[in-house]
Write a structure and sequence with these properties.
heterodimer; A: alpha/beta; Transcription Regulator spoIIAA; CBS-domain; 3 domains; six-stranded mixed β-sheet; four-stranded mixed β-sheet; 35 helices; 14 strands; B: alpha/beta; three-stranded mixed β-sheet; 6 helices
Chain lengths: ~775, ~160
């Protein structure tokens, strides 16, 4: 019984059901749809299998074997419910490309070479699965697949012209497809009209079936019908000379026997040179096979919602190839057409693919001898029609419209497929993708940030920010060795004569290494020579380690480095504050005007500016519990977590003392002083502190003997606040009554406002622009 | 059962130990700050490890000390304020603030909050800094525990 995994990762049906119950459920629910889907796949797969074997240069019988053994094994061990494994046209084309010239060079039969290739391909895929290297397929982009598939389709079709028109090409003139096409065309006058007729009819009928009756198994009907026509007309009879239509039997006779187990020759008489030559091709086949299978399984899973285990699928694909190499099977892969047929015809589990293998075996045993009469031109017609579908015009158009980089990759891969060995073409495509990726990422994105009073920071194009003493540069993307080159000089372009500090935001930088650090080091030196400070922010953990390891942290100075936090732009705000501080320090050293401005603000900001009349006042005769209730209500209204004070008044309304939350908590804690607090639950805690709730608040309040009046300047306020130790500063009138209060937050906010106002005042442009003391060469 | 972890918050300002008080004030007490944050500064070392907490009170005390030495002359007061604001924030770390563990129950939080005047307690989980607990949160939990259902006999709020 094959169990399936749903999207939620649970076994379908009842997870706790016994194997017998699961089997019983399967028989009841899934057996029939799987059996029907398997039959549909087999009907489609038998002619495809024989035809694809022809692409690989092998007799059609091996296509049937490959439609049985790997299909069965991949179904048992795989992950996808609908992926049908077997012979595919692209893989067969690579097999031909790889192995065509080898039999002569190694004195080993083509079949044995293909079996060795199949085993090695399977071994690579099994290792990918075991070592969870499934991610390798990510490096084969969509553009590579589109270009390669289209190229392979052209090659396959071109390679079958000779079979379609019934022309024999001498082995010496075979090989590259251009040579094969040329040899075919130069022999066109030898074309067999009967073979051409059968081939032409095959193509015409298949196109008609696809257009007008797509659900009918056209390939099988055309194959049977035209084989019958050729047999009845006697075109396939030997002894007809040039008019003899070649049939399957002319290549190798198909017998009903299923005695196909044989240990490949590579294990009996290993030829290391041959194996060595096959390894590169096997790797290409392994990767391409995985890409093909993954794409198909993923496409179907997106409709079914099945969550796939790709590493398991890779291991299953590998095992299928390794085992099938002992059963005269060539390299298989996930077939798109048969997988789609399996899904569309209602297949529910991996048993559907297993059924298709079973039906194919039955066909082989029951009707195998009849397959001997299939004309090769008919199979060639089937191949050419399926090859045409590999040139996916819509996908090519979409990829082509996706931009110049996609065009280069798809065009390059297509050209490589047509002109180079196929296994190399895949790697050429991958290489092109990587080169383009490097080119794209060889330049990090540079923008500038400008602080906006309403919405934080505004991002503007690089070198377009208005001249300010602080230039904030935002660096994003990869900063690998190629990207770091000359970046320091490019960054200098953001400098203006007004620039005093550069803030470099490096939050979204990746691939930071020694080249990036060398760039930063040099940029710091360039700035230093111009008297400009460097502050960096958005530093994440990885970057922090690199800064430390390279010594750049020490060079920049810890006070100029700000670390990324969970709040967006927090480190940039901090860095900007630091930068403004530097600018301020530089200015204050020379600018007496600024000093005057600060003095004015300091003298003219008074307690009245900070005070709030709304504050907590309470009679000093109350109990702690009443003060607690009052404070808790006030805290809620104030919407702050910072503790507020209660000011206690006597009967005349004069301020006498102050009480705050830490003081209340300290008092309550005396209730548990003789207990181990770790052993107290909340009920115990409430019971123990309850007596403290009824104490008078006068007992725990602190005398309010330091106050300010409304006219006290900020400097006095700050000084007195530091003396009295209260969290809120009471402001009393001439009669000693409480007029209001301000807390320490208000004091510091007042101070911040003062500093901001001061900075803003001094940032105003001077009436007459002064000549810049600094000339910055822009590189 | 209420534990420290439930009362802890991560909405506070983190800053490296090398930064000045002015920078810390500029960020923590920015009047234009749109995000409500706890008014406490968490000071970290170069490796991001917790060093201590700085509260507004600590900053005010430093400024007050500087101003006390400055006298009444506004020039020397300005210099004093600038000097106070230039102090590295690490120098203002509040000493001896009790640390609490994420699993500490309310009674432990009460006992530890009574050990200092701090308005915030740092919380650690598996020896790693986890967040801060405002003492107001402890106070609020105790109010709910002890005053729940009894507010009817608590008479008034004097505006």
């Amino acid at each position: 019984m094959i169990t399936e995994t749903t999207e939620a990762g649970e076994t379908e049906g009842r997870p706790s059901a016994s194997p017998l119950e699961q089997f019983s459920t399967y028989i009841r629910q899934d057996l029939k749809p799987d059996a029907i889907a398997g039959l549909t796949v087999a009907v489609m797969g038998v002619p495809q299998g024989m035809a694809y074997a022809l692409i690989a240069g092998l007799p059609p019988i091996y296509g049937l074997y490959t439609s049985i053994i790997p299909t069965l094994i991949a179904a048992i061990f795989g992950s996808s419910r609908h992926l049908v494994t077997g012979p595919t046209n692209a893989m067969c084309m690579i097999i031909l490309s790889l192995t065509a010239s080898m039999p002569d060079r190694y004195d080993v039969s083509l079949l044995e070479i293909v079996l060795a290739l199949t085993f090695l391909t399977g071994l690579f895929q099994l290792l990918f699965g075991i070592f969870k290297l499934g991610g390798i397929v990510k490096y084969v982009s969509n553009s590579v697949i589109v270009g390669f598939t289209a190229g392979a389709g052209i090659l396959i079709a071109a390679n079958q012209i000779k079979n379609l028109i019934g022309v024999s090409i001498p082995d010496s003139q075979g090989g590259h497809f251009l040579v094969t096409i040329w040899a075919t065309l130069t022999r066109f006058h030898y074309a067999n009209p009967y073979a051409f007729l059968i081939g032409g009819l095959t193509i015409g009928l298949l196109v008609a079936f696809r257009r007008y009756a797509p659900k009918v198994p056209g390939s099988l009907i055309v194959l049977v019908a035209l084989s019958l026509v050729a047999w009845l007309a006697g075109w396939s009879e030997p002894g007809r000379g040039d008019s003899h239509v070649k049939i399957v039997r002319d290549i190798q006779e198909i017998s009903p026997s299923f005695d196909i187990f044989a240990v490949p020759q590579m294990f009996v008489r290993p030829n290391l040179n041959l194996i060595q030559e096959l390894v590169g091709g096997a790797l290409a086949l392994a990767i391409l096979g995985l890409v093909e299978s993954t794409a198909i399984a993923r496409a179907i899973a997106s409709s079914t919602g099945q969550r796939l285990d790709f590493n398991r699928e890779f291991a299953a694909q590998g095992a299928a190839k390794m085992v099938s190499s002992f059963f005269h099977c060539f390299v298989s892969s996930g077939s798109f057409t048969r997988s789609a047929a399996c899904y569309q015809s209602g297949g529910r589990t991996r048993a559907a693919a297993a059924f298709s293998a079973l039906y194919t075996a039955i066909v082989l045993i029951a009707f195998g001898p009849l397959a001997n009469y299939i004309p090769l031109s008919c199979l060639a017609g089937i191949i050419m029609v399926t090859a045409a579908t590999m040139i996916q015009k819509d996908r090519i158009a979409m990829t082509w419209k996706s931009g110049r980089n996609s065009q280069i990759v798809v065009g390059g891969t297509l050209a490589a497929t047509l002109l180079m060995p196929l296994e190399t073409a895949v790697f050429v495509g991958v290489l092109l993708s990587i080169v383009i990726l490097l080119r794209i990422t060889s330049k990090p994105d540079l923008t500038q940030l400008v602080q906006h009073s309403e919405y934080g920071f505004e991002e503007v194009p690089f070198n377009r920010a208005a001249p300010e003493p602080v230039a904030i540069i935002n660096l994003e993307g990869d900063l690998h060795f190629a990207a770091a080159e000359d970046l320091d000089y490019e960054l200098l372009q953001a400098l203006k004569p007004e620039t005093r500090v550069v803030v470099l935001r490096m939050k979204r930088l990746r691939a930071v290494g020694s080249s990036a650090m060398a760039m930063l080091d040099h940029f710091h030196t360039l700035l230093h020579a111009r008297g400009i400070h460097l502050v960096v922010c958005g530093i994440e953990e990885e970057m922090s380690k690199v800064l430390t390891g390279s010594g750049v942290r020490k060079l920049i100075g810890e006070q100029n480095i700000f670390y990324a936090d969970n709040r967006i732009f927090q480190s940039t705000e901090l860095a900007l504050a630091r930068a403004m501080g530097i600018v301020e320090m530089q200015r204050s050293a020379t600018d007496s005007e600024s000093r005057e401005s600060l003095r004015e603000t300091l003298v003219h900001t008074t307690a009245a500016d900070l005070m709030q009349k709304r504050c907590l006042r309470f009679g000093e005769g109350h109990q702690v519990r009443e003060a607690m209730w009052l404070v808790s209500q006030f805290q809620k209204r104030m919407n702050t977590a910072h503790p507020q004070s209660v000011f206690l008044q006597n009967r005349e309304g004069k301020l006498t003392s102050e009480l705050d939350i830490p003081a209340i908590l300290k008092h309550l804690a005396t209730g548990i002083a003789d207990s181990n607090p770790t052993k107290l639950d909340e009920e115990d805690l409430a019971r123990k502190i309850e007596p403290r709730l009824f104490d008078g608040i006068r007992k725990i309040a602190r005398p309010a003997d330091v106050t300010v009046n409304q006219d006290s300047p900020l400097s006095e306020v700050l000084w007195r606040a530091s003396k009295n130790g209260f969290r809120s500063m009471p402001v009393s009138d001439a009669h000693g009554r409480l007029g209001g209060a301000f807390d320490e937050i208000a004091m510091l906010r007042g101070l911040t406002k003062l500093l901001h106002a001061d900075q803003a005042k001094r940032s105003e442009p001077p009436a007459a622009p002064k000549p810049s003391p600094m000339q910055i060469p822009l590189t | 059962m209420i534990q420290a972890e439930q009362l802890a918050t991560a909405k506070f300002v983190r800053i490296g130990s090398g930064h000045s008080t002015a920078e810390a004030v500029g960020i923590a007490f920015d009047p234009d700050a749109s995000v409500l944050r706890e008014i406490v500064i968490v000071v970290l070392d170069n490796d991001g490890n917790f060093l201590g907490l700085v509260e507004p009170r600590d900053i005010l005390e430093r400024l007050g000390t500087e101003l006390a030495q400055a006298g009444s002359d506004s020039d020397t007061q300005i210099t004093a304020i600038r000097r106070g604001l230039a102090t590295p924030v690490a120098e203002l770390i509040r000493p001896e603030v009790p640390r609490v563990a994420a699993q500490d129950p309310l009674a432990v939080l009460l006992a530890k909050s009574a050990m200092s005047e701090a308005a915030y307690l740092p919380v650690f989980k598996d020896d790693t800094f986890f967040g801060v607990i405002p003492v107001t949160a402890i106070f609020d939990s105790i109010c709910q525990l002890t005053l729940s259902g009894r507010s009817s006999d608590i008479p008034f709020l004097n505006p």
